[in-house]
TrEMBL record, chain A:
Keywords: Cell inner membrane, Cell membrane, Membrane, Transmembrane, Transmembrane helix, Transport. InterPro entries: MetI-like (IPR000515), MetI-like_sf (IPR035906). It is a multi-pass membrane protein. The chain crosses the membrane at residues 58-78, 90-109, 121-141, 174-193, 220-239, 268-291, 303-326, 347-367, 373-390, 434-456, 476-497. This is Iron ABC transporter permease. It comes from the Bacteria. The lineage of its organism: Bacteria, Bacillati, Actinomycetota, Actinomycetes, Micrococcales. Pfam families: BPD_transp_1 (PF00528).
UniProtKB/TrEMBL annotation, chain B:
It comes from Isoptericola sediminis. GO terms for biological process: iron ion transport; transmembrane transport. One of its GO terms (molecular function) is metal ion binding. Keywords: Ion transport, Iron, Iron transport, Metal-binding, Signal, Transport. Fe cation binds at residues 53, 101, 237-238. Residues 1-30 form the signal peptide. This is Extracellular solute-binding protein. It comes from the Bacteria.
Amino acid sequence: MRASSRSRGVAVAATLVAALTVLPLVVVLLDASSAGVEEAVDYLVRPRVGELLANTGLLMGVTVPATVVLGTLAAWLVERTALPWAGLWRTLLLAPLAVPAFVSAYAWVTVAPWLTGFGGAALVTTLAYFPFVFLPVAALLRSLDPAEEEVARSLGLSPTRAVVRTVLPRLRPAISGGALLVALHLLAEYGVLEMMRFQTFTTAIMQRYAVGFSDASGSLLASVLLGLCLLVLTLEVVARGRRRVSRVGAGTQRPATRARLGGWTAPALVMLGTLVGLALVVPVATVLRWLGSAIGDGLVDDLLTVTASTVLLALLGGLAAVVAALPGAWLLNRRRSALTVLLERSTYLASALPGVVVGLALVTLAIDWARPLYQTLALTVLAYAILFLPRAMVALRAGLAAAPPELSEASRSLGLGGPATLVRVVLPLIGPSVLTGFVLVSLAVSTELTATLLLAPTGTDTLALAFWRETSALDYAAAAPYAAVMIVLSVPLTLLLRRQILEER
Amino acid sequence: MKRKPFVSRQHRRPLVAALLALPLALTACSTDGESEDAFAAEPGALQIYSSQHRDVTQAWAEAFTEKTGIETQVREGQDSSMGHMIVEEGEASPADVFLTENSPAMTVVERADLLAPVDEETQAQVRDGMAPSSGRWTAVAARSTVLVYNTEMISEDELPDSIMDLADPEWAGQWGAAPGGADFQAIMAGMLADRGEEETRAWLEALAENSEVYQNNIATMKAVNAGEVPVGIMYHYYWYRDQAGDKEGSANTQLHYFGQQDPGAFVSLSAGGVLESSDMPDEAQQFLAYVTSPEGQQVLVDSGSMEYAVGAGVESDPALPTLDELDAPPVDPFTLNSDTVMELMTDASIL
């Protein structure tokens, strides 16, 4: 009896969170529908919208597969082959996470000004986002018991067939989860695409915002974007599959035998070296180069103030997102049903929308219904939680998958109550994942641009805002210090993520 | 799967603690403790919504505070979106003063009946024709449309006589502009007022077809400088600023003034207004009076922004041609219609 009332409480909490995240969508859809059918059709059925759709689709069609291939291949090389200096490569391949995508774009624009449009957009987004696939796949490969693969081999499968039959199915959730993150990021990406002068729905929405604040046309575009997001989420449910990836008890597991690369060693090193060079060395070296010409008076004071407010926002946002994600993730792990999947997916929707859309919706809501919240820290943090919930969710789900219900049930059968089970069994198992989720969200908040612009209290300045201000004025030197601090702040967080992979044993 | 979770948790603790302590340390470092108040509007401070350039607004705000002791706080934004934002905030807008880059954004707020009449003494401080007859706002600065050209790619006598000529097929792919920005949209509002809807529509369609689109004026100028396109439409002051500095973005370029009352000689007014809903109306009026005063206008000139001063009897930077020499088109800046411009630009698939 107690168990069911408890899970009802969790369900209520998860529903509340889902409702909160859907709220901006409701505002957007209501606003869009205020345009009237005829006007909406007039606005949406025209060459410009077709062009935006084609551009968005093209970018997704290239970047998502590219990140999946690069991320998975790199993860396999690092975790499962006799690649020299695997530990170093692991760190280097995660390091691009510390370079915000728009900083990478800024670097590429100054290094190769001719590289604009689709080519630049696809290159920079691929380089910036492949770690989203690398991270979960590497973590999973490390924790995977090699016994299955060995059994498959002993039953006569070739090495390749054994990998395809035993390893790949297990990787499916990690790969599709990573690909989902990449796809959602692409849908909402603004900074990179604006710098690369490649127009998608999100840049068009920003343009609409610039001319009309929150008029119906912007909401119409946002509604189309919402449709695209729904499509992506549906595809991911299909790609993920319904297989359970946890098992009871770790057994006695030993590290997998690493495949010998032989003649492939050199090509593998060249590939990883190129990847790291393009994704990490180019941005960091460029920022450092500009930094040299940016040192001036008053800079340090300004930088400290801006950094302090950025860090505070990042921590609050991370905390809010993790707390909000916990009920949904738990529910999904324990009671997977059509309803819980729907609840989880609904929290993904708002995050695929650009920050400006969620920001505008919250501005409208606050002005009309919650005036005291307008331009407050609380509303800003709420926006972060809504925007970045999936990051926390993905991490928490991975953790909960490693804490199967049977363990909690065993603990309860041994006489521990719900809270004690949570503290003594579940939390230790999912603790690392909670931290991962927290870190992922904080990273995202520290580089968030448009929602911050709209919602933050007057007088708030963040690294991303300052960086964007200087970059828009094409003052690359003045932008460099903010870019440098964003990178430096992200380094400890990235190291933390690296530990996460290492501890997956 | 995860063995020894307790051990790994203990390992992680110092790291987490360090991470959590980071903001505290940073806050402590930030010298004057300002960041404690960084997340709240300062009570008693004049709230200035500004889409003007940051350095200009700050120069005015700081000089004003120094002179009057009235604290100010600036919220930055972009012209059109900020104007609409104030309308959406309505009567309860936190803003006391609104400063724009171009007047159409102010007109948006004026039409929503949210502006208080500007003090007559303030209106009397600016040049004739620089404040609307409604008396609800006043110009605080001005900027001129120009054609920037790459001197290595095109000679002076090959330049078009009128901005309208750029729509001709011979100019296809030869010119750049930043149609997404408020500056350009103000120029279009001027063209619309001067040449009417048909001509403006045709010109915008040519723009969508023939021009290279850049993010903003500076990007346009740098593209012309780098030889991506021979000519570009922009405002004058970005060029003068770059020339006064290291010329990195303009060394290969010159400016062409259309003059002759051409739509390409449009002069855009930066506007200042006081919100009717302001809870500090006297201070807000004081601020506007200061900005338009000879002293405040001198702050603008000295800020190096290279925008035109609009105060009666105040000289703009000597590097600039005078406002009278610009021979701007006879457009009433107070009836500029940005809504129709948006529609035309949407129809032309630019937005």
